[in-house]
From TrEMBL:
EC main group: hydrolase
One Pfam family per UniProt: Glyco_hydro_20b
One annotated GO biological process: carbohydrate metabolic process
Domain called Glycoside hydrolase family 20 catalytic: residue spans: 90-406
Catalytic activity line of the entry: Hydrolysis of terminal non-reducing N-acetyl-D-hexosamine residues in N-acetyl-beta-D-hexosaminides
Domain spans labelled Beta-hexosaminidase bacterial type N-terminal: 26-86
Annotated active site: E262
Identification of the protein by name: beta-N-acetylhexosaminidase
Length: 453
């Protein structure tokens, strides 16, 4: 009944009434791990750190029944007598949330922190900038959020259809908003990793400061790859150094994303110089696996080996990065892009990408040598919290088990545990997930074209 599945769960005879009291002891167990005992003499937890204690309490919450996930949980519940030994398989258990294509209001962002924590996930990677929007308040360069923070319209459905939403879209987070999100996440043992995308996916910044770009133009209203990139001049690098310095003042995380992906005619020198700046400031740069291609640019020089590579174009780039001495986070689109459609059912709303089923996600096995893995939620077609819930869940629950639990999982057993125990928890949390047998009528978007592969 526990999700993610623990290393060991032994159920005893009987049940005990739980009044919320947990006796905690510090012992030498693996980081983020714990031992939990539910017995007649009370609930006891042994952990070596605060994170382990927190995850043990999440397990107690699950054992308490779906009511424990409501805003006002029961005062007293009945727990099964049991012994649990548990620890995570990977240290990086992440979710990339694209708030650039469609802005997610702060209260919904905080809600997603809670949802990650409830699944024992520990990294929230925020994609804060792209061609379609700039979501980070800049005190030094305010036009970034004042101009780049909104667009006049949005493509609705696949770009090949030519359809538009017919309304402006915008929003940005103040620096105080983001400090609040970071503090809230820290209390729940979630690290917030910011990303400012360069040298491509930069049209919102170019709209605000045209001298940054190879060509001008406004904030992009389309999806896809924009050929306009930032100019590879020292003045541009210096501009972004100042932007990243503001980011570092808001986000204390060691890891900071700089993008580096999907750039037609992009410049590896920009990526390397910004990565070096982040490392000089005591941080680690995090880039999509195209940064490995930039390393072949003779004008750029080698990438710093401290740079972390996110392998999205399959696993091969990640394996290459490992050979070159980089740490790697796996996020292959075939298995871990949760904006891709969940079945061949014609009722799937705006079907894009390949079919990525619950079983596909659950069956993914990251290599043991990597830091971990993350799912990516790109939001071109996820324009509201309801649409985000539909795309994310319950596949995100399956992913949580992939990165936490030992290898050798049983998908049939998981589906039973999911249906009987975990979906009721999501119901209590108000998550509008996709039912296992297909979308509900109000989750469909008939007539809005996608582009299935």
């Amino acid at each position: 009944m526990i999700l993610p599945r623990p290393v060991s769960f032994v159920r005893g005879d009987g049940e005990v009434v739980f009044d919320g009291t947990v006796h905690v002891s510090r012992v030498d167990v693996p980081a983020e791990g714990y031992r939990l005992s539910v017995a007649a003499d009370g609930v006891r937890v042994w952990a070596s750190d605060d994170a382990g204690e927190f995850y043990a309490r999440q397990t107690v919450r699950q054992l308490s029944g779906p009511g424990a996930f409501r805003a006002v949980p029961p005062d007293r519940v009945t727990l099964p007598v049991c012994e649990v030994v548990d620890q995570p398989r990977f240290g990086w258990r992440g979710v990339m949330l694209d708030v650039a294509r469609h802005f997610l209001p702060k209260h919904d962002l905080l809600r997603y922190v809670d949802l990650l924590a409830a699944h024992k996930l520990n990294v929230l990677h925020l994609h804060l900038t792209d061609d379609q929007g700039w979501r980070f308040e800049s005190v030094r360069f305010p036009r970034l959020h004042e101009v780049g923070g909104w667009r006049a319209d949005s493509r609705f459905g696949d770009r090949r259809s030519g359809g538009m939403a017919g309304r402006p879209h915008g929003g940005y987070y103040t620096q105080d908003d983001l400090r609040e999100v970071v503090a809230y996440a820290t209390q729940r043992h979630v690290t917030v990793v910011p990303e400012i995308d360069v040298p491509g996916h930069s049209q919102a910044a170019i709209a605000a400061y045209p001298s940054l770009g190879v060509a001008g133009g406004g904030v992009w209203t389309d999806w896809g790859i924009n050929p306009n990139v930032i100019v590879p001049e020292e003045s541009t690098v210096d501009f972004y150094r100042q932007v990243f310095d503001e980011v570092l003042d808001v986000f204390p995380a060691e890891v900071v994303g700089l993008g580096g992906d999907e750039t037609e005619g992009g410049d590896g020198r920009v990526v390397r110089r910004i990565a070096e700046h982040l490392h000089q400031r005591g941080r680690r740069a995090f880039g999509w696996d195209e940064v490995l291609d930039r390393a072949s640019d003779s004008t750029a020089g080698p990438l710093p080996t401290r740079m972390i590579v996110a392998s999205w174009r399959g696993e091969e780039p990640g394996l290459t990065a490992l050979e070159r001495g980089h740490d790697v986070v796996m996020c292959p689109e075939r298995y871990l892009y949760l904006d891709y459609r969940q079945s061949d059912d014609p009722r799937e709303p705006i079907p894009v990408g390949t079919v990525t089923t619950l079983e596909d996600v659950y069956g993914y096995e990251p290599p043991d040598r990597v830091l971990g893995a993350q799912v990516n939620l790109w939001t071109e077609h996820l324009d509201s919290p309801r649409r985000l819930d539909y795309a994310a869940f319950p596949r995100l629950s399956a992913f949580a088990e992939v990165v936490w639990s030992p290898a050798g999982r049983d998908v049939a057993e998981f589906r039973t545990r999911l249906a009987e125990h975990h979906l009721p928890r999501l119901d209590a949390l108000g998550v509008e997930y996709r039912p296992l047998d297909g979308p509900r009528p109000w989750q469909e978007l008939p007539g809005v074209p996608g582009f299935p592969r």
